[in-house]
Specification:
With about 325 residues, the protein is an alpha/beta fold. The protein has helices spanning about 25-30, 45-50, 55, 75-90, 105, 120-130, 150-160, 185-190, 210-220, 235-245, 255-270, 275-285, 300-305, 310-325; strands spanning about 1-5, 5, 15, 40-45, 70-75, 95-100, 135-140, 165-170, 200-205, 225. It is about 45% helix and about 15% strand. The relative contact order is 0.11.
Length: about 325
């Protein structure tokens, strides 16, 4: 699969953009673990053009992360064009437009998935951003605003006519948020449409290597994007890539997985500061499958997620790794 001149190979597996998740450290680790392409957190066009420091920092891409995309969102043509030019100056491999974020503070203000209620503006923003930059422009969106407006098959053609070079589709409407099961049927219809010539990337509920392979075969998409299943589990890309290659899974020890989580903690603290770095990483610690299904783990889990210093958190992780994880009889099967 190619986006412009960027060759991602056959059946690429990509890290989805996720706010407060896909920071620089996590992106680099996911690339090392096999992700073929990674995306930044959501970059607000309004915040970017106001030179908000926290937003400007999201544009930083290290060589080890590439190929990497910057994803921007906004609700006016002018702000999105200006933000696109600023993002391009950071030299991403791809510039992605977010027409899919469903959260109220974004979609409720008309940006992200909110654009699905104003298709003419959505298309105008896309056309103008494509004209404004030289970097390949892509779009990520959803099936439609709600059950009664699933317009993605027609919309995909119109977005392609605007000049985008790939389209990612999340298999839910905005109204669904992240509830229910992602419906890939319409994603498959977009891919099967003979008028579509750009790569189609599927997204939604890809939680295991087996499901990844199954959906590649069933829906014929060019790429698949993995989001929530990677939180606290960047090694899932290593598992998925090997499974696609030969149908087997790599042996990844708990110690290797814990080392990756510890690295995220250290790099999060180094990048921000101790207090905020620990707060940032808690989402990964809460979600990681390494610590799922352990008998009588509740008090340790609470202590881990309430730790306020690096030393305190490291001591709890030492206890988990040295005293709890080696005893597999503690697992609830």
């Amino acid at each position: 699969m190619k986006i412009g001149n960027i060759d991602l190979g056959e059946r690429p597996v990509m890290l989805a953009p996720m706010e407060d998740v896909t920071d620089q450290s996590f992106r680099q680790i996911c690339r090392e673990q096999g992700a073929d392409m990674v995306y930044t957190e959501f970059v607000s066009a309004d915040a970017l053009i106001r030179n908000i420091d926290s937003t400007l920092r999201k544009l930083t891409i290290q060589p080890a992360e590439r190929p990497a995309a910057i994803q921007i969102y906004g609700r006016t043509v002018e702000s999105m064009v200006e933000a696109a030019r600023m993002a391009e100056a950071a030299h991403p491999d791809v510039l992605d437009i977010n027409f899919g974020c469903p959260v109220k503070k974004v979609a409720g203000k008309g940006a992200g998935a909110g654009m699905l209620r104003n298709i003419p503006l959505l298309l105008e923003i896309t056309r103008e951003v494509v004209k404004a930059v030289q970097v390949p422009v892509t779009v990520k969106t959803r099936l439609g605003w709600d059950h009664d407006s699933k317009n993605i098959v027609e919309l995909a053609e119109r977005l392609q006519d605007c000049g985008i070079q790939a389209l990612t589709i999340h298999g839910r409407t905005r109204s669904q948020m992240y509830d229910g099961e992602a419906d890939w049927t319409l994603i498959g219809q977009v891919k099967a449409n003979p008028r579509m010539t750009i790569p189609i990337i599927g997204n939604g509920d890809i939680t295991t290597p087996a499901k990844l392979a199954e959906y590649y075969d069933r829906y014929g998409v060019d790429g698949i994007m993995v989001g929530r299943a990677s939180i606290g589990a960047p090694w899932i890309f290593r598992e998925m890539k090997q499974y696609l290659a030969d149908g087997t899974l790599p042996a990844i020890s708990d110690s290797e997985k814990m080392a990756l989580l510890r690295r995220q903690i250290a790099e999060s603290i180094d990048r921000i500061d101790e207090r905020r770095g620990i707060l940032h990483i808690r989402r990964h610690l809460a979600a990681t499958p390494v610590l799922k299904g352990i008998y009588d783990f509740r008090s340790t889990r609470i202590a881990m997620l309430q730790a306020g210093t690096r030393a305190e958190l490291e001591a709890i992780l030492d206890h988990i790794e040295n005293d709890i994880l080696p005893d597999q009889s503690r697992r609830i099967l």
